[in-house]
């Protein structure tokens, strides 16, 4: 049985958007007979709960959604879930996708050093713009947020399907580059300036560490 663990603190507008967008990935995984999904949502996204769950179910794929720093990923109300010099051993043998700012700078390399299979994330802040929508339906159809979150999440469907992390990474880069080109050629000054700049930032700072041929 393949096991996925997902963290969704969902305690502010940005992380609510992340929770909304990862649901398509969760639903796709749940439809597979050989796959089980465990989600730490809201107040359950804590360091203790993560450690207990990982040690119990032994996931091969962990999808972190939340805020972060160069050496850590945070959960509900900013609690540190995983930190480079504390409990990074939880990532040994795992494929990790971290939509958490800067976490691929220090935490990612450390995860690979201790035996993690692969770490897909961002060395600098993950930037995205949105229209501050409140419902899940509005967030999923927010055209501004889509420019940033589609490249981040849609490639995860390939991981769930058993494709390699390199395949997911390349698709993510491709989609982001396509959205960047669209923004740059737009007549909208918002799109061809601030949005284009943020998309380029994400494209430049997204990295894949570890075993490129690793698959879920």
Number of strands: 9
Unreliable spans: none
| Rg (CA only) | 16 Å
What's the main sheet like? 6 strands, mixed
| SSE pattern, N- to C-terminal | EHEHEEEEEHEHHHHHE
CATH class: Alpha Beta
CATH A-level architecture:
3-Layer(aba) Sandwich
Strand content: 15-25%
CATH topology heading: Rossmann fold
Helical run tally: 8
What is the number of independent domains? 1
What is the helical fraction, as a range of percent? 40-55%
* Coarse structural class: alpha/beta
Shape: globular
Mean pLDDT: 97
Strand order of the largest sheet: 2-1-3-7-8-9
What is the first-to-last residue Cα distance? 11 Å
Structure description:
With 216 residues, the protein is an alpha/beta fold. The protein has one domain: 3-Layer(aba) Sandwich (Rossmann fold), CATH 3.40.50. 43% of the residues lie in helices and 20% in strands. It contains eight helices and nine strands. A six-stranded mixed β-sheet has the order 2-1-3-7-8-9, sandwiched between helices. A hairpin with a 5-residue loop joins β5 (72-74) and β6 (80-83). α5 (143-153) runs antiparallel to α7 (165-184) and α7 (165-184) packs antiparallel against α8. The radius of gyration is 16 Å and the shape is globular. The N and C termini lie close together (11 Å). The relative contact order is 0.15.
